[in-house]
Amino acid sequence: MKPLQTDKIKFFQQRGPGEKITATFDFLRENRSAWLKSCAWPIIPIALIYGWMQANAITFSPAYDASPFDFDLMELIVGVTLKKSPLVSVYSLLFLVALWALFTATSAMIHLYEYRTERLQGVTWAEWRGALLHAVGYSTVAALMTFLLLYALSLAESLLVLLLIAAAFPLALFAPACSLGRCGGAFASFARALSLGVTTWGGIAITMAGLWFILSFLREASDVVNAVLHRVIVNLVYTDGFSPVISKCVLTLSYAAVYWVSLLCFSAMMFCAAYLYGHAEEKISFISLDDDIRNFEHL
To answer: To the nearest whole number, what is the mean pLDDT of the chain?
Structure first.
């Protein structure tokens, strides 16, 4: 096992919005192998199921519009990419399972990175299993809360959307509060996440918006590639008699890749939430310490 060449990218440290985003990308770059593997095993089967459903639902006709904007995040969440499909609930269920798997995997990674001297280097299966089992319970709660909140966002009107977004930012700190383990049980972590989230709401909003803007370029690139590939396949089938079976296999992989990239972006935001939580803890602790010193000086 090679010695670690870089300093640990600490979660518990005060940072500005740009520094939090930088820390997130540094964390992903340092742990890219563990990140991609942990997101591959549980997510790729779900992505392939989604891709197969999409490929079997399309019409091989030049009139079918394969816009690169078909894969809006809200449509992935509520499963309405094919709004007239009777399988809408299946799309939603797939996303909920994927969300739960992402929360469990990312929470386990955050926990191991924080509490192991070697970080994520040389992690044994026994350590992974322990971290995953530790994360299963609160990850289920976090996935359900996120799914229901995003589902409500997809159905809400303008003013309610703003209120739901405002509620989302404090809730984003719940899973990191549990995985980093400074609050005790899940209920204490939930209360702490709400308290810190309300206190640091502005910083959370700016950081998450900035990160999503950066990640959206990756998502849009995958969407455009998928749209171009889809148009080529449709034209080949319609004009040149290309095998529909082979076409559907190619499109299954293409749709699955877009779905997986979208979920990878979502997981990156989960890691960013850990740095937001650590920043909030340090900021509030510093304020409390400063108040204690001032009170002591006035004695």
So the answer is: 78
